[in-house]
Design brief:
The chain is an alpha+beta fold. The chain has one domain: Amidase signature (AS) domain (Amidase signature (AS) enzymes, Alpha-Beta Complex), CATH 3.90.1300.10. It is about 35% helix and about 15% strand. Helix 2 packs antiparallel against helix 3, helix 9 packs across helix 10 and helix 9 packs across helix 11.
Length: about 475
């Protein structure tokens, strides 16, 4: 019999709405799952059992009273530890904030509570979200649910693990260089990177650089869409927030895959890609290509993307961390130090050049879709690697020039400001989750979600491309890594 924590978010919400599932029962099931498996994974950094139980009891009473219910009514939600939660420890993965308990919610968290979400736990992240291996000096490393000795990706790694194992049905994430998409693919779940401003981002030190975004993580496209609906808002404290939020449909119906013109790109023409992962992608392309009206191999134009990304990323690191580096260097991790120090070496002409390149990339990327409805490419360049290794140092024997370069499959697209769904697509050559990106230009969020929803159903019908599931029995009772 399926445990409540294993229900999809959409199904659990439907059952709650017709009094067939108690929010109290659901919260207790999620707490039990955390107790069972998180010792092996270390995904949860803080848990509010008393608060969640009280909120669930209130949610149950609201149902019994016949009152109107919010989108997430009674659903437990995991919050990435980069977002403040009132009364619940929030550290940003940093020793600087190791004991911080905020007095107020981040606006995104407040929106989720307003829609009936039960804030159950915080999920692990690298320090200040810097890195695609979820580990920090406060909590240590988070393991992959398919192999706890390997990384779950990052920086939304704790969220990816929590969702994959049923600790929570929904979790928040954020994405800059791939912080949402990488853990989604490594953990075999769905992650959605929306267009800038769709989910307001109002607590970032550089508001006018739109590359970092907030988005949902879940076990299915439909569940991710449900969380997205609760995250949507119009908030002018985010200069990119707009009425585009009204374009997201209340329910997904899918599209006819047989009508689509699809561009496939194995490496975006610029990203390092492990040879074995390339073979896996080619196999998946063969398995799904017949579904579409037309397919062709075509790379977007992303010239000069690597250096431009590093420079613009550095602008944000210097703005956020220069004073921390000067005053508290001994408490910071290597990724934050590395990014900030490299950023301080760039000049104004460097920054001006990077902005010019990014503008050109954005324009050319939009034009790319004049001849394609959607772009499909791998979501990660390598298979999950041991979390004791901080980052990927080489791909196919080629040394990576920075700790970020192996993430070009995601950050190169970030520079074009896309809408992108990371979709599970079977397992790779090592039996670990493999994911693809379903990508459209800025503003195409509703369409990208509809395509991903339809494609997800088609993938589920084929054993080779179906979503993998972790072995929970092997995780139960294991000690922390």
């Amino acid at each position: 019999m399926t445990k409540p924590c294993d229900l999809s978010a959409v199904e659990a919400r439907r059952l709650i709405g017709r009094k067939a599932l108690s929010p109290v029962e659901l919260v207790e099931s999620c707490i039990s799952r955390i107790t069972e498996v998180d010792g092996a994974l270390n995904a949860i950094t803080a848990i509010d059992e008393d608060g969640a139980r009280a909120a669930a009891k209130d949610a149950e009473q609201t149902v019994m009273d016949g009152e109107l219910l919010g989108l997430l009514h009674g659903l437990p939600v995991g919050i990435k530890d980069l977002q403040a939660t009132k009364g619940l420890r929030t550290t940003w993965g940093s020793l600087l904030y190791e004991h911080t308990v905020p007095d107020e919610d981040d606006p995104l968290v407040a929106n989720l509570r307003a829609e009936g979400g039960v804030i159950l736990a915080k999920t692990n992240t690298p320090e200040f979200g810097a890195g695609a291996n979820t580990t920090n000096k406060v909590f240590g490393a988070t393991g992959n649910p398919f192999d706890p000795d390997k990384t779950c990706g990052g920086s939304s790694g704790g969220s990816g693990v929590a969702v994959a194992t049923g600790m929570v049905p929904l979790a928040t994430g954020s994405d800059h260089g791939g912080s949402l998409r990488t853990p989604a693919t490594f953990c075999g779940v769905v992650g959605f990177r929306p267009s800038p401003g769709l989910v307001p981002r109002v607590t970032h030190p550089v508001a006018l650089l739109p590359m970092p975004v907030l988005g949902p993580m879940a076990r299915s496209v439909e569940d991710a869409h449900l969380l997205l609906q609760a995250q949507l808002d119009l908030d002018k404290d985010d200069p990119f927030s707009s009425d585009d939020v009204m374009r997201i449909p209340d329910a997904l119906t899918g599209v006819d895959l047989g009508s689509l013109k699809v561009a496939f790109s194995a490496d975006l023409g610029c990203a390092p890609l492990d040879n074995d992962i390339r073979k896996v992608f080619e196999s998946r392309k063969s398995a799904i290509g017949h579904m579409f009206a037309e397919t062709h191999d075509r790379d977007p134009e992303l010239s000069d993307v690597h250096e431009a990304f590093e420079i613009l990323r550095a602008v944000q690191f210097v703005a956020a961390h220069k004073e921390r580096l000067e005053n508290s260097r001994d408490l910071l991790g290597p990724n934050v130090i590395n990014n900030t120090e490299r950023g301080l070496k760039y000049s104004l002409p460097d920054v001006a050049w990077a902005h010019k390149v990014q503008t050109e990339l954005y324009t050319k990327f939009r034009a790319f879709f004049d001849d394609a409805d959607i772009l499909i490419c791998p979501a990660a360049a390598v298979s999950p690697f041991p979390h004791a290794q901080l980052f990927v140092e080489e791909v196919n024997g080629e040394k990576m020039p920075t700790y970020m370069r192996w993430l070009a499959m995601t950050y190169a697209l970030t520079m074009a400001l896309p809408s992108a769904v990371c979709l599970p697509c079977g397992v790779d050559h090592l039996g670990m989750p493999f994911g693809i990106q379903v990508v459209g230009p800025i503003g195409s969020d509703a369409y990208v979600l509809e395509v991903a929803f339809a494609l997800e159903q088609a993938l589920a019908a084929n054993k080779e491309t179906a979503q993998p599931e972790p072995n929970l029995k092997s995780l139960a009772g294991a000690g922390k890594k």
